[in-house]
């Protein structure tokens, strides 16, 4: 019992320290200084290492600013709140795995996660797969509600938006630390609405992938260079991390 109490207290102290870091980074002294609805936070805990659960009152008004898309709901807003917190403290908190915002009654909940797989960074195949998983998780963050399905497989996204070149990622490899090479299969995306002379499909995918992965990855886990190829290697685009840092 004493050990369990110690673990609970340790977890609470860690959660408290993350909230303090967030406040300091935001230049405020109290959570009440956050904008709505962050200023409504009633409590926070850490039920397991690297995890923060934050409660909000049941009377929270969702989409109060009217900025959400028509297909989005409370889960999307709560997950975005977790991403905003990640953007503030994630780089200084490599141990942080996920942030969940939920109403006190549990009716609404949204989780933003790093989506790590525990890959050995020296194992090029395993590392490349982790980056793929993190990218797909980032796609789900955006498109789950619009597609009316959890995107854990690329086929789900392809059924939702068959004209998007992202839906045709066929291979993700890592030739060197920090580098990814992504291959796109042919499909109806070619010469479509997301593949134009102004923004070729390979450019669209390369920029989006490095951005979404690096929102979740920490430090050396991030992708430093990504190359996307298509049309049997006849077309490609390379993007660097420094050009896509927020």
Q: What attributes characterize this protein structure?
A:
single chain; 246 residues; 8 strands; globular
What is the chain-wise order of helices and strands?
Answer: HEEHEEHHEEHEE
Strand order of the largest sheet: 1-2-3-4
Radius of gyration from the alpha-carbon trace, in angstroms? 20 Å
- Unreliably modeled segments: 1-5
**What is the β-strand count?**
8
Q: What's the number of helices?
A: 5
Shape: globular
Q: Which range does the strand content fall in?
A: 15-25%
* Main sheet properties: 4 strands, mixed
Span between termini: 45 Å
Structural class: alpha/beta
Mean pLDDT: 95
Considering DSSP H and I runs of 4 or more, what fraction of the residues is helical?
A: 25-40%
Task: Describe the secondary structure blueprint for this structure.
Blueprint: H1 2-26, E1 43-45, E2 51-56, H2 74-89, E3 98-103, E4 109-113, H3 124-147, H4 154-160, E5 169-173, E6 179-184, H5 201-216, E7 225-230, E8 235-240
Parallel strand pairs: 2-3, 6-7
Antiparallel strand pairs: 1-2, 3-4, 5-6, 7-8
């Amino acid at each position: 019992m004493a050990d369990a109490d110690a673990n609970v207290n340790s977890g609470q102290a860690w959660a408290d320290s993350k909230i303090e870091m967030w406040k300091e980074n935001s230049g405020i002294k109290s959570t009440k200084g956050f904008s709505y609805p962050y200023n409504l936070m009633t409590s926070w805990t850490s039920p397991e290492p690297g995890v923060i659960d934050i409660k909000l009152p049941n009377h929270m008004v969702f989409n109060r600013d009217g900025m959400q898309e028509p297909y989005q709901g409370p889960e999307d807003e709560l997950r975005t709140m977790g991403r905003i917190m990640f953007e503030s403290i994630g780089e200084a908190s490599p141990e942080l795995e996920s942030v969940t915002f939920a109403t006190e009654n549990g009716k609404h909940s949204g989780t933003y996660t790093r989506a790590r797989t525990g890959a050995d960074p020296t194992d090029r195949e395993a590392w490349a797969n982790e980056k793929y998983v993190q990218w797909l998780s980032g796609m789900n963050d955006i498109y789950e509600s619009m597609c009316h399905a959890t995107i854990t497989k690329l086929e789900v996204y392809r059924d939702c938006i068959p004209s998007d070149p992202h839906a045709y990622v066929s291979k993700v490899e890592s030739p060197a630390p920090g580098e990814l090479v992504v291959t796109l299969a042919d499909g109806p995306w070619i010469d479509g609405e997301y593949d134009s002379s102004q923004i070729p499909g390979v450019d669209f995918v390369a920029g989006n992938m490095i951005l979404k992965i690096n929102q979740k990855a920490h430090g050396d886990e991030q992708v430093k260079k990504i190359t996307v190829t298509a049309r049997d290697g006849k077309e490609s685009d390379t993007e660097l991390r420094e050009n896509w840092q927020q």
